[in-house]
């Protein structure tokens, strides 16, 4: 079994390591009426110089309806199957922010979503600041409010400090943790459809704004908003690395 990690070491202002991270670019709602337009690093995703990655959502000067952010992905660079997927993250606060660490099956271009499977290691929304969500999406149980998951309340806003979010992933089993505390365990018997979670996946780190999450109504006064990532680690996993693709992904999803 192998490991992979990124501690985001490097000078302030540079893009994260391009051998590990690419970027999904563009706008158009991303499937659930999100308001941001994703840009190419380092415009909205750059190292801080303190061993962290900062993903920043902001309203662009002179364009009040233009909100930019970043969505980083290891697709075509690093893929993995099983093991522990963990990250130490400080989420932003404010109505409309929607930071996430999640995974998609590497076969997405061949079979589409949700047949490829989606595992949300963590999601947090500004409209529910003390809660973390762990969720999966697959055929027959996909989309906002239709995945299979758990809301876990921590008692204080997640934006107050860094927290460690993790999923332990084994054949036929997924277990979610925050700061070492288990809050959700899932097996194939608990989902109302196929279990597309036993093949290779890739990582996504992003900060969305607005969208179809109930109660997370966007408030532009929450911007700029900053998601800080201290580290990301994958351990005890079947890790595959490859050369970065020549072309970045551009989406105008509706």
TrEMBL record:
Q: Which PROSITE patterns match?
A: GH16_2 (PS51762)
Keywords, in A-Z order: Hydrolase
Annotated ranges, domain GH16: 1-240
Which InterPro entries did the record assign? Beta-glucanase-like, ConA-like_dom_sf, Glycosyl_Hydrlase_16
Q: Name its species.
A: Microbacterium pygmaeum
GO biological process terms, alphabetically, are:
carbohydrate metabolic process
Name the UniProt record assigns to this protein: Glycosyl hydrolases family 16
The UniProt entry's sequence similarity note says: Belongs to the glycosyl hydrolase 16 family.
Q: Which GO terms describe its molecular function?
A: hydrolase activity, hydrolyzing O-glycosyl compounds
